[in-house]
Design a protein that fits this description.
heterodimer, A: about 250 residues, mainly alpha, about 80% helix, B: alpha/beta, 6-stranded mixed sheet, 9 helices, 9 strands
Chain lengths: ~250, ~240
């Protein structure tokens, strides 16, 4: 069996794992519902004013909700790796492919594909929800096609990278619930606190860099391309750490 | 010794300051059922997992057909493994579990259906594994191990949770594999069952080898092994150490 064939078989096996449980479907459905709810809440509560909605910044503030739900893609990534430890199937995986680096590479790849699907759907729901609210409120859509495309691409890339980070995090921590809690606490609490203590440092941290990538209109964020590069570097660092730890770990 | 399907050379494992396995040297031959016996915590599972590359030895080596497991070109086709009844995703069907493994081993779905038939799980193939009985999960584990028709079978407590009918079925199954010239290594607590299934016995206790020889040498007779004699010998071997 050639390396190419073995790699293809491994990828097919990882795809089969993903598609033969219901987890991913429910997580994506929850993700899309959250986006629509959060976006609607932002409009109805006045968190984004009608005046702002009529500007490009207002459109960006709405569309970035598609990316804020990327934590759900991260959870998909965590279940792809930590889920195997949770259910004990990791032993079977390493018995089929004893060299562990290709296993993790396949998982990163599968997570990226899942993140891409989730990202495209999330962007689409964010845009659709926004268009509905603009219509309902009778406000003119204050952004050109370029703004929409940049938000769409940025949010999708955000999901892809977060899903891959999720696999790495799950492989590092192994306990699925602990990995998810750690990610949520970091993204929504710890990073905000760290950024508050060291403002100039904050935008280089992963979750804040992700908002730059997602074309968020808030001030103090990195430009979109820079945010993407910084988040990609964080993702690569997590992946390298996951590979190193997995190669050294006993499966008991 | 070089041509033995399974060979351990001075194999050892420490977890921190705890020594789980110390200097195991032995060979497992083909064409017979070898039982790996030992009390709880003796190091049986650690030994099996070191053979399979799941646990890294801190000393020595474990070889399958002369190579470490990780260096086998087609590991699933070389070694079939039963690691327990709790190694399945509960919401995946039995058939889908096998398909996942088959994909990784470059095997067809036709083979999946064949092994389901072999372990008599065809009727339950589309049910969630979470709804399986313990015995059904053991059978699914065996089906997974046999998927690629390997020459070597390594099973960790394969009879755990099986009812008398299942144990009888398993006995015939393992004997059949050995009679075909395959290598069967199983760990077990069930001395009565070992007396009826195994040809050869390896006893470890506190991570050290205590006995490696034909079943008859421990059970009184090769042709008519006595479970009570085997139990007495086992207790003597393992309590001598503790004492």
């Amino acid at each position: 069996m050639t390396g190419v064939t073995a790699g293809r078989d491994l990828t097919h096996s990882e795809f089969a794992k993903l598609l033969t449980t219901r987890t991913i479907r429910w997580v994506i459905i929850a993700e899309l519902a959250l986006i629509a709810l959060a976006e609607s809440g932002a409009v109805e509560s006045g968190a984004i004013s009608s005046t702002k909605l009529a500007t490009a910044a207002g459109v960006r503030a709405l569309l970035v909700h598609g990316g804020l739900a990327a934590v759900m893609s991260l959870i998909i990534g965590v279940t792809i790796s930590a889920g195997e430890y949770r259910h004990g199937t990791i032993a079977d995986t390493f018995l089929s492919t004893p060299r562990r680096t290709p296993v993790l590479l396949a998982k990163f790849w599968i997570a990226a594909v899942a993140g891409l699907v989730a990202g495209i759907l999330s962007s689409a729901v964010a845009l659709t929800t926004a268009l509905i609210w603009y219509s309902v409120k009778g406000i003119s859509f204050g952004a050109d096609d370029g703004t929409v495309v940049r938000a769409f691409v940025g949010v999708t890339a955000w999901h892809v990278l977060y899903a891959v980070v999720g696999v790495a995090l799950g492989a590092l921590i192994r306990a699925q619930s602990a990995a998810i809690v750690a990610a949520v606490v970091w993204i929504f609490i710890a990073e905000t606190a760290v950024a508050g203590l060291a403002v100039s440092l904050g935008r280089w941290l992963p979750a804040t860099a992700a908002r730059g990538l997602g074309y968020d209109s808030s001030s103090g964020l990195l430009p979109q391309a820079s945010g993407g590069i910084v988040l990609a570097l964080w993702t690569a660092a997590f992946c390298v750490g996951a590979v190193i730890v997995t190669l050294r770990r006993d499966v008991v | 010794m070089e041509s033995l399907p399974i060979r351990l050379d001075d194999l050892g494992k420490r977890f921190g300051t705890f020594s789980a396995v110390e200097g195991l040297t032995l060979g497992i031959q083909s064409g017979r059922v070898t039982a790996l016996l030992g009390p709880n915590g003796a190091g049986k599972t650690t030994t099996l997992r070191m053979m399979l590359g799941l646990i890294r030895p801190t000393m020595g080596r474990a070889l399958i057909n002369g190579r470490p497991y990780a260096e086998l070109s087609a590991p699933r086709r070389t070694v079939g493994v039963v690691l327990g009844s709790d190694c399945f995703h509960p919401s995946r069907s039995g058939r889908n579990h096998l398909r996942v493994v088959a994909r990784a081993a470059h095997l067809s779905d036709t083979r999946v259906d064949e092994v389901l038939e072999l372990v008599e799980l065809t009727q339950a193939a589309r049910r969630r594994v979470g709804d399986y009985s313990l015995g059904m999960r053991q059978r699914l584990g065996l089906a997974t191990a046999l998927l690629a028709d390997p020459q070597i079978l390594i099973a960790d407590e394969p009879a755990n949770g099986l009812d008398p009918e299942g144990i009888a079925w398993l006995r015939g199954f393992l004997r059949g594999l050995a009679d075909e010239g395959r290598t069967v290594l199983m760990s077990s607590h069930l001395l009565g069952e070992v007396a009826r299934t195994a040809d050869h016995v390896v006893v470890i206790s506190d991570g050290r080898l205590r006995f490696d020889g034909p079943l008859g040498d421990l059970a009184g007779s090769a042709t008519n092994p006595d479970p009570a004699v085997l139990e007495a010998a086992f207790l003597r071997l393992t309590t001598e150490v503790a004492g």
